[in-house]
């Protein structure tokens, strides 16, 4: 069974989610 990674924020706007996604994307085959 494959693993899933979900990054969820509670604020509207840039709260640093992009930096976390940039760190995780080399380990993922699909980013949406």
Keyword list:
32 residues; mainly alpha; elongated; 1 helix
Commentary on this structure:
The chain has 32 residues and is mostly helical. It has one domain. It is built from one helix and no strands. The longest helix has 8 residues, at 17-24. It is elongated and about 30 Å long.
Summarize the helix and strand pattern as letters. Answer: H
Distance between the termini: 20 Å
How would the global form be characterised? elongated
Structural class comes to: mainly alpha
Largest β-sheet summary: none
Mean pLDDT comes to 78
Q: What's the structural domain tally? A: 1
The total count of helices amounts to: 1
Tell me roughly what share of residues is in helical segments. Answer: 25-40%
Strand content: under 5%
**Which consecutive residue ranges, at least 5 long each, have pLDDT under 50?**
none
The tally of beta strands, per DSSP, is 0
User: Gyration radius, to the nearest Å?
Assistant: 11 Å
